[in-house]
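Q: My collaborator sent me two sequences in one message, no labels, and asked for predicted structures for both. Can we handle them in order? The first one she listed is below.
A: Yes, handling them in the order given. First sequence, followed by its structure tokens:
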Amino acid sequence: MICGSLIQWQNMTSITKKHYYLLTGGAIVLILAVVFQLFYDGTFQNKIIDKTEKVPFRVQTFSVDGKGWGYEIVCKNKIIIKQDIIPAIQHPTPFQSEEDARETGQLVINKMKRKKLPSVSIAELDSMQIEGVNSLVTN
């Protein structure tokens, strides 16, 4: 197979070989120019960020048996996380207000957009002043 290719190459005229080199070299230069342009002016990085921002995550809150609130993280009309209790605490207790549930769900979405684990710590809940976390943590 290699021998056949060499024979074909030897039989090519010098003009055909020049065209081959010009076309190959031109294609390589064009590809390098496009790649350089994408990375140099930041367009490539902006497109990556835009794709993560366009992911349609949203928070939906819901009542938990009339005793409190929970949240769902929805993506493209599919529930991907359903949280009916305050995460990271020992006692299974729903959020005391709808706003607390919504804020915690938004924290989870922000983490997912940054490609972090969607976990929530007691310190994060405490810094957000989620109602009832201090009394549950200290008990």
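Q: And the one she listed second?
A: Here it is, processed independently of the first:
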Amino acid sequence: MTYERFEQLPVWQAAVKLGQQVYALTKYPPFRRQHSLRDQIERAAVSVSNNIAEGFERGTTQELLTFLYIARGSAGEVRSMLCLLEGISEFSNLKSEISNLKLEAERVSRQLRVWADSLQNTNIKGQRYLDDKVRNREKALRDRQEFLRELEQIRRGAAARGIPKWLQSHIIQTIHRKGAAEHRPSGPSVRACPVRRNLSQAFRPASARAGDLIGLI
């Protein structure tokens, strides 16, 4: 899935939730006498979502990676401070809340690590480097993947309606042969392909004659 805004990112949403929970925790009375601890953990919690957002908006993969690691470091700082709080007697009545927050911080850290690992293995430099040629190639690749997903939907729909396997295979292979040439990365978009307009017909009831099913392709 492609995200166009950082607000759509599941990891950013999780980081915001972490920050909200930290602020809910620091409202408890023990923090009134621990101003430095309260301020530090609040700043660290806010830093997680802010760095995800800033990295996303920078427009390059390398900068995004840098800010993801900073965000992960902030999530680790939150977790470290929660461990510290667990050992301070004044916060003994908040052990359950602190434990839940540690788990939440760990979840955010794991999501950031997975995302960063995936970016390490990509050849995409980032939005800032994309020209029209690159954008068109990326769009063609996405359209081809969507076309192949719809072929799989046809197969499943035909199987659910009791269409014989030999006919399922014939339909899929024929559509694929006709559509493949028009859906290569350098070719036109799948949305312009006449084969796509006929995809829904493969979901006709099982009572439809085999000749009609073959005829649609």
